[in-house]
Amino acid sequence: MNTPKELLYSKSHEWVAFSGDTAKVGLTDFAQNALGGLVFVNLPEVGDEVEKGKACADVESVKAVSDVYCPVSGEVTAINEDLLDQPELINQSPYEAWLFEVGSISDKEELLDAAAYEAFCAEEE
Amino acid sequence: MELIFERSREGRGCAILPGLDVPAAELPEALRRGRKLHLPQIAEVDISRHYTALMKRTHGVNDGFYPLGSCTMKYNPKINDEMAGLPGFSKIHPLQPAHTVQGCLKALCMAEELLCEITGMDGMTFQPAAGAHGEFTGLMLIQAYHESRGDRKRTKIIVPDAAHGTNPASASMVGYEVVSIPSNSEGCVDLEKLRAAVGEDTAGLMLTNPNTVGIFDKNILEITRIIHDAGGLNYYDGANLNAVMGMVRPGDMGFDVIHLNLHKTFSTPHGGGGPGSGPVGCKELLKPFLPVFHQVREGDSCQFDTPAQSIGSVKAFYGNFLVVLRALTYVLTLGAEGIPEASANAVLNANYLMHELAGLYEMAYDGPCMHEFVMSLSKLKKENGVSAMDIAKSLLDHGIHPPTMYFPLIVEEALMVEPTETESKETLDQAAAVFRSIYETALSDPQSLHEAPVRTPIRRPDELGAARNPKLRYQFTE
Amino acid sequence: MGSYVPSTRQERAQMLQKIGADSIDALFANVPAGMKLKALHIPQGKSELEVSELVSSLAAENRVFPVIFRGAGAYNHYIPSIVKSVTSKEEFVTAYTPYQAEISQGILQSIFEYQTMICELTGMDVSNASVYDGASAAAEAVAMCRDRRRGRVLVSAAAHPMVIRTIQTYCHAAHVEVEIVPMKDGVTDKDALVSMLDAKAACFYLQQPNYLGQFEDADALGELVHSAGAKYVMGVNPIACAMVKTPAESGADIAVGEGQPLGMPLSFGGPYLGFMACTSAMMRKLPGRIVGETTDSEGNRAFVLTLQAREQHIRREKASSNVCSNQALCALTASAYMTAMGAQGMQQVAELCYSKAHYAAAELGKISGFELAYTGPFFHEFVTGCPGDPQALLSRLEGEGILGGYPVEGGILWCVTEMNTKAQIDRLVSVIQEVRATWN
């Protein structure tokens, strides 16, 4: 399992990359592996208010749909439109395939570092 | 196999219609279709062969055992189809004057009276075209009832986590918030959790009994009472009525509104996914809200009536009439003694097959089942890597339609088996032998099951590719 | 015997013995004792012969009209023999939803072919595997357009009243009020539509040709709808589609309709067929089953149910529609019909309907008071005036074995199809002339 050190992680298996006062959010390698081949993503719209811990996107595999929970509160400033045509990018390179970017961050969940997240995943398995 | 479009040859066709016997009228240019219409050009003999080839690549109830849990794939008696095909029904325009359609109206009245007696309801609409359509209609009755009393705080519908997916989806369509309550270790409603979930905001409960794991919830009266005490109404999902019809009635269990799946319990054919029929029955208190076109008797004749506070219409006209007619034919055939005989044997067959498999296969719940039972393949999956899907696919090679897979969601690696009453003991014995031999193969040669099926028209399809690159129609080259 | 249960008393005893149960009753132990039904108060079962006689006697209480000039949502068309032969094949009749693709290729392929034909007929990009009927298809289409930004639903007053009612019922469930765009001269009032469109309008539903048979100015209405940023939903007659501008050509985002004219008998209103097709952009919002082409593990062509994550069995309370079953056998009927007719045959039906309706309208128009109520172009239905009691006229026609037009506000709505010969039309006209003479 790939768990880059420079990222932070939620217990619902999203990764967060902070940069200044914005954060990009994606799905972890553990998550994409558990979900299997993805076929579609439903992303929020730019300008949407998002709240930490609340579902704001979902990803579809052949026979399942899973919510993506936003690890931070703020406003969506960008979405990764490439994923709308190529959801398989999440399977291929989960840490490049960010889903959306949040700005004006007002709050965030308690996030794990790479080591803590790996330990958390080991427990879940 | 070739698509019908690939069989097309320029210049071929069938001579169906005569020429014009009145002066030709010209459609104004601005209204004329510009786009070329591609339809097959094909002689009748090749149409016949094309569909016969497709027929041979289709598994129906007449082909063999079809124990698809929760779908009640019983035999479809042929007299039902013959009756539905009578010109006195099939050639009747829905907007004919009432005095020219008394036979149709009487059929609807008779079906209502018989099915109300079987379910313990007071009135029934035949407008809904399918089970999910019935759920939507029934929930609208509940909504209209609360609204008529000025009770607008009831915003929640309680649905057990084992419920059919249509239940929460229907509740959402009616604007209700869905409160999912977990089942207890016996697969039944957890009374404590139910008590904790109800309140002033409870509009109602959706439940099927026997439930989706094939167990009759013995606390049913307590369950429906909890909802009634909170001011809510009880909705019965009739998908599993085949277990209890003629034995016990949803109306006597405390349910206020119910849908039936005539294409399950009442033997009308499924048609490859429809047309079905999902009539909704209700107690007296909900009758004023039934959809328009409610059939009523007036003296010796019948007519349609619009209930005073009708919710409106969920489709055009009066429902899938010819399907209702098939079900009526079936109920008339079975009658007072045949209806409970059917459910008794559905339950006997399920228990017998469960007993025959229980030594090898792990049952999700203990004790006798009703008309269906759920097995869990999770142990086999863990130990030998053989999944419920592998077992199902292997059954295809033996000419048996697999049980429902991966449902209910509360059982891991679930296979849900519903043999129905119309299967003989030897069919069940043969199926049990097949299940056993597949289990032995799972232990000795798991790889061969991952590759199953091998004797079907196609092997396992690439569903991921289909969903990632949707190809949903044939593309013509010009 | 009468319950289609094959097992004998002896076999049941063997089975019970193996299970270790004393009686079948013991298997119902969970049912509270007081709740068990003592007796079912319905008639005793009957033999097949008796049932056949009973149900046939009901059929005999209905009147089959040899001549029909009534449509209003259900249309009398010729059904080729091959269609009936295809749709009565037991495998198609008795199978369930094609969950197991390996043994359901026949049904899956037939649905794929159906989807292709519906796309061809309407010009749209994507079709689903069908829904219950034209009215519920319209209601589902409206639901596809609503979102949290745009919630207003506009429907033409010239649509079929039952379709309007169904859209209203579905919308009421979702706490949305349907706004009716009024009619002027038998078609949708454009000025009224303009005044009602705004940034909150989700969609406008138009029926083409409309309930009164009139062709709407569908292109212009579509432009108005799109310029307000709303979605354009068209309800169309599938026979008319063969000769008239397709909904795609008129700019529709979603095309729906009642598929009954495509080979389904009148059947007192059902089962019929709701077809639904949309642009690629709206594909993911399309409810119901959809079949896609793929390959199997050996590279052979294969068909599967696809895009399933849209559906209720996966999304549960988050699904936008609860549609589960479709009308597969009716979809098969429609594709067998379109195959038997071919493009030429479909155009021929449309032309026969069109020319015969225009002949009938012209002949009726020669009778004083039976002139056309509206002057616009029409397809195979039209409204004439009726300068007397329509019921009296229709009763007289009934006596002649003719199911006359349907009474509507301002007159009678007539429908003429390829089933009506010139001789029938002339007979209709002469009976009406006779009745008219008594009204002077």
Identify the CATH homologous superfamily of the largest domain in chain B.
Type I PLP-dependent aspartate aminotransferase-like (Major domain)
Find the structural class of chain B using helix and strand composition.
alpha/beta
Question: Residue-averaged pLDDT of chain A, rounded?
Answer: 91
Q: What is the CATH topology classification name of chain A?
A: OB fold (Dihydrolipoamide Acetyltransferase, E2P)
| Assembly form of the protein | heterotrimer
Query: What is the rounded distance between the termini of chain B?
Result: 22 Å
Give the helices and strands of chain A as they follow along the chain: EEEHEEEEEHHEH
Helix content of chain A: 10-25%
Number of contiguous helices of chain B:
15
Number of helices of chain A: 4
Give the topology.
The complex is a heterotrimer of chains A (125), B (478) and C (440).
Chain A: E1 8-9, E2 14-19, E3 22-27, H1 29-35, E4 38-42, E5 49-50, E6 55-61, E7 64-69, E8 72-79, H2 82-85, H3 88-92, E9 100-108, H4 114-124
Antiparallel strand pairs in A: 1-2, 2-3, 3-9, 4-6, 5-8, 6-7, 8-9
Chain B: H1 44-56, H2 78-84, H3 87-90, H4 102-119, E1 123-125, H5 131-148, E2 156-160, H6 166-173, E3 177-181, H7 191-197, E4 202-207, H8 220-229, E5 233-237, H9 250-253, E6 257-259, E7 280-282, E8 294-298, E9 301-305, H10 321-358, E10 362-363, E11 373-376, H11 378-384, H12 388-397, E12 404-405, E13 414-417, H13 425-444, H14 446-451, H15 463-468
Parallel strand pairs in B: 2-3, 2-4, 4-5, 5-6
Antiparallel strand pairs in B: 1-7, 6-7, 8-9, 10-11, 11-13, 12-13
Chain C: H1 9-19, H2 24-27, H3 48-60, E1 67-68, H4 81-87, H5 90-94, H6 105-122, E2 126-127, H7 134-145, E3 152-156, H8 161-173, E4 178-181, E5 183-184, E6 187-188, H9 190-196, E7 201-208, H10 218-227, E8 231-236, E9 254-258, E10 274-278, E11 291-295, E12 301-305, H11 312-315, H12 328-365, E13 381-384, H13 390-399, E14 402-403, E15 406-408, E16 411-415, H14 422-438
Helix pairs in contact in C: 4-12, 6-12, 7-8, 12-14
How is this structure best described in words?
The complex is a heterotrimer of chains A (125), B (478) and C (440). By secondary structure, chain A is of the alpha+beta class. Chain A has a single domain (8-124), classed as Beta Barrel (OB fold (Dihydrolipoamide Acetyltransferase, E2P)). In chain A, 22% of the residues lie in helices and 41% in strands. The model of chain A has no long low-confidence stretch (mean pLDDT 91). Chain B has 3 domains: 1-20 and 35-57, no CATH class; 78-334, Type I PLP-dependent aspartate aminotransferase-like (Major domain) (Aspartate Aminotransferase, domain 2), CATH 3.40.640.10; 338-467, Aspartate Aminotransferase, domain 1 (Alpha-Beta Complex). In chain B, the strands form 3 sheets. Chain B has a 7-stranded mixed β-sheet with strand order 1-7-6-5-4-2-3, with helices on both faces. In chain B, strands 10-11-13-12 form a 4-stranded antiparallel β-sheet, with helices on one face. The two termini of chain B are 22 Å apart. Chain C is of the alpha/beta class. Chain C contains 14 helices and 16 strands. Chain C has helices spanning 9-19, 24-27, 48-60, 81-87, 90-94, 105-122, 134-145, 161-173, 190-196, 218-227, 312-315, 328-365, 390-399, 422-438; strands spanning 67-68, 126-127, 152-156, 178-181, 183-184, 187-188, 201-208, 231-236, 254-258, 274-278, 291-295, 301-305, 381-384, 402-403, 406-408, 411-415.
